[in-house]
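Example with several molecule types.
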Amino acid sequence: MVNKIIKLGTEYHVCEACDMTYKEEEIAKKCEDWCNKNHSCNIEIIKHAVKK
Ligand SMILES: [Zn+2]
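Resulting C-alpha cells for the full complex:
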C-alpha cells in the first residue's frame, strides 16, 4: 500500500517496501510493485524519488 503524505502543501507518495518518496503516485505504485516482486530497488524508478 502506497502511503500518501503531505509536506509543506505538496502531496507525496511513499513506497512502503523501501520507504522511497515520490511526487507521482504512479511511480510510487510502480516502485512498490517492483520492491515486492524483486526485493530490490529499480534504479530507473528510484531516480524519480525525492529526498525527504
Ligand atoms: Zn520501493
